[in-house]
Amino acid sequence: MNSLAKTIDEYQLEDISGPMRDQLEKYCRLLWSRNKHLNLTRHTDYQKFVSRDLLDTLQLSALIPAGMEVLDVGSGGGVPGIVLSILRPDLEISLAESVTKKSGALNQMIDQLALPIPVHNCRAEALLDDIRFDLLISRAVGPLWKICHWFQASWHEFRCMLAIKGPRWIEERQEARQRGLLDGVQLRVATSYPMAGTESESVILKLWQKGAEEPLASS
Question: HEC string of 144-196?
């Protein structure tokens, strides 16, 4: 098996510092150890981690201004939330994971990585009345219509959501429209990029309340 550092070099990700690489490698080992008992990830080698998890999180990171308060929706094994925290210590990141065993595993990994990340063992939308976040992020938590359903009454509670999606996002958008779940939502492709080793593209969708000024707009 290649080392993480070698795989990062293969993808020419020079901006990831030595201390970050050490933290990311430790995270991978912790995640894969827990994955033997919990279904936390399908990406159980460095190649998959870098080409999917790390590249997705780097693309996401490039869209987020400094100092924002960020909630990772349905964090699962900690991608993108934990990875983003390692790459962007300037951000205030929280995780929401409603499955108790998974939230427990997240807390254990965060403790061993010494990261300042609270984990909320509940659904993300249940937090929004009491805690104010600038930005929600999501990856692999469900189709677009489900995400829009979950947050249908909550778009005014945060500036926007950034949702990492694969090539089926257009079909997902159509399904959400047919269900009337985009009626109060603005949706835009914030960025798109190749999925490594495939001919497909990933996108990051930006969703925010209809009628509000576009957040995170390029100057």
Answer: HHHHHHHCCCCHHHCCEEEEEECCCHHHHHHHHHHCCCCCCEEEEEEEEEECC
pLDDT in tens, 51-100: 999 999 999 999 999 999 999 999 999 999 999 999 999 999 999 999 99
Q: What is the pLDDT of residues 175-197, one digit of tens each?
A: 999 999 999 999 999 999 999 88
Buried b / exposed e over 47-70, threshold 16 CB at 10 Å, is bbbbbbbbbbbbbbeebbeeebeb
Q: Name the nearest CA neighbour of 160 among 120, 188, 193, 183.
A: 188
Give the angle subtended at the CA of 166 by the CAs of 16 and 104, to the nearest 5°.
65
pTM of this structure: 0.96
Q: Is the peptide bond before 80 cis (omega within 30 degrees of 0)?
A: yes
List of domains in the chain: 4-209 (3.40.50.150)
Report how far residue 14's alpha carbon sits from residue 168's, in angstroms, rounded to the nearest whole number.
31
Quickly count: other Cβ atoms within 10 Å of residue 152's Cβ. Answer: 14
